[in-house]
Amino acid sequence: MANMKILFLVGSLRRESLNGAAAASAAEMLPGGVEPTWFGRLDQLPHFDPDVEETNLPEAAQRLRGMVEEAAGVVICCPEYAHGASGVMKMTLEWLVGGTEMAAKPTMLVNVSTSNGGGLRAQRWLEETLTVMGVDVRPERVSVAAAARKVSGGRLVDEAALADLRGALDGFLTYVGSLGVGKDAVDLLY
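^ NADPH-dependent FMN reductase-like domain-containing protein, sequence as received from the core. Prediction below:
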C-alpha cells in the first residue's frame, strides 16, 4: 500500500513562525509509512477572485487542491490575528471552498500563540469556517499558549506541548487510518 500522506498547511509567513515550528515538530512525530507533505508558503496563492476561479484557476490553487485531494488528512497550524485566523489562511480556504477536495477531509487544528489564550479564538474561527465547508474537523487539536518560550531552533521544545501534540496526532492518525486510507501505516503506531 502506498504511504498515507498528511498535508501540513502553515498559516504564517514569518521566517521563524511558531506555528511552523509546531508543524515541523508534528511532521517529525509521524511514524514510518506516513508521509508529511507541504504546500509551502501560502503567499504563493494570488488574492482570491471568484471570476478567476471560474475561468482560469491559477497554477498555485490547482496545486493546492491537488495536494489536498491526495492527502488522507490535513493538519492546519495557524496563528491568531484579531481574534481570527491569519489573512493568508483565510485566503487559502477561499481557494478551497469552491472545490470538493476538502469535503469530509479529516482535518486537525494546531494553534500556537504568544498570548495566554493559545490561539483558541482562531481555532474556533477555523472550526466554524471549515465546518461550513463540509470538512471533517476532528476533536483532536492542540492549543499552545505563551509559546515564545516553548519554541527553540524551529521546533517545539516544551515537554507538555510536545506531549499534547503527540497525543492529538496519534488520535488523528488512528482516525484517518480507520477510514481505510493508509491503514497499514496507522498500524505502525501500536
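The mean pLDDT is 91.
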